[in-house]
Amino acid sequence: MTKTAFVSSDEIRSMFSAAMSAMYRAEVPAYGTLMDLVARVNLETLDADPKLRERLEDTDSLNRISEERHGAIRLGTPAELAMMRRVFAVMGMFPVGYYDLSTAGVPVHSTAFRPVGDASLKKNPFRVFTSLLRLDLIADETLRAEAQATLATREIFTPGAVELTEKAEQQGGLDRADAARFVTEALETFRWHDKARVSPDMYARLHAAHRLVADVVSFKGPHINHLTPRTLDIDLVQARMPDYGIAPKAVVEGPPTRKCAILLRQTSFKALNEPVLFQAEDGSWKEGSHTARFGEIEQRGIALTPKGRALYDDLLNASRKVVRPAADGSNAADYEKALAEAFTPFPDSWEAIRAEGLGYFAYSLTEKGRKSRAGAEASLDSLIADGLVQFDPIVYEDFLPVSAAGIFQSNLGDDATQDFAASPNQQRFELDLGAKVLNEFDHYAGIEQASIADCRQMLSAVQA
Ligand code: OOG
Ligand code: NI
């Protein structure tokens, strides 16, 4: 077979993302409602802001917005994580970033599998926040051993998914028929199972140790626990959710409302209580329930440099010293006020964010720049001042540990807060993953540098 017969990994990712969305829509109807609401708000926002529409069109980002989503899964063993990496690689998704959530009382550490590079991100930025359970953080040794034994006997991938992943690795890709089959087979891993693999008694003990442990250990596979469409106005979607019969989380996670959106803002609706059958020791099935799957929306802003990120972390910490958001929403207004006040030192214009080196930008030639005969050696600042070069924010494609913890917590139940000693262990995670995770800052810096190099090359071509 020739290489030209292969479907691109970007296309396989798009097929997979669409299939996952359709499956989740059928399984969790409130997700479909949320999608409709987000689509409507996005249209209204674009209609009200022609300049935003124009910038998104110019940077090739408009088409991707309504297609855009992320999901999350929680895995049980190193072997599952390592195989998951290989499955995602077939779809052009690679591990970026390391997130330690133990500090936030959640016994997992995580990465995000996502496309890397400007072209792939523009095609389809679908990503999956992927956590690995850390049984080492569970105190009860007997329970830990039982959980490990239970996880050791499950197989979360279908034989077809494994076979096609190996085939893709050997051939360097999949043809159209194989790609379609791969999507169907891989999707099985993410499906919901309403029959637990553990007895009611064991479920209760796992649940008492930590709700998340029960969620990972009790089932046949790592059901997708949420899918998150991207909105252009998260405050509006949050405000309108109740009109659509959806009860939102108390506060929006991340930075406050601003003119120039930074990083990532997220909110969710609470996880559903779903019926589950548990098999008792005597073989009989007992009815019970489990709470895991929810819906979330996100608004993405500019990716920050290490300097910008440090400022963000400082300001967020400062606001939380004033008010910590209560899970019941009772101090939501105070929290929003404290957050907005804490963030006043963070400049709110693209010019200032750029001038202070707080964010990453993609540079391109203006109309004037495209016709210009001068300036290839000039400094970037003077090219901008002369109106030859313009800049657009580079979108943050990753996650925020404090926000992720807030999302985890609101869906684990408000009584689920537990303290673990902070114990980031990126080395262990990478060993289990079978690869290093990419550093997100290097990645954004690379996109920025490439855009500057393109401008310079085009300017010198114009001169020649
Ligand atoms: C993942 C929570 C993290 C996000 O958007 O920050 C996340 C989980 O609950 O498994 O998806
Ligand atoms: Ni999420």
From TrEMBL:
<dbReference type="Pfam" id="PF07063">
    <property type="entry name" value="HGLS"/>
</dbReference>
<dbReference type="InterPro" id="IPR047869">
    <property type="entry name" value="YdcJ_bac-like"/>
</dbReference>
<dbReference type="InterPro" id="IPR009770">
    <property type="entry name" value="HGLS"/>
</dbReference>
<keyword id="KW-0408">Iron</keyword>
<keyword id="KW-0560">Oxidoreductase</keyword>
<protein>
    <recommendedName>
        <fullName>2-oxoadipate dioxygenase/decarboxylase</fullName>
        <ecNumber>1.13.11.93</ecNumber>
    </recommendedName>
</protein>
<keyword id="KW-0223">Dioxygenase</keyword>
<comment type="similarity">
    <text>Belongs to the 2-oxoadipate dioxygenase/decarboxylase family.</text>
</comment>
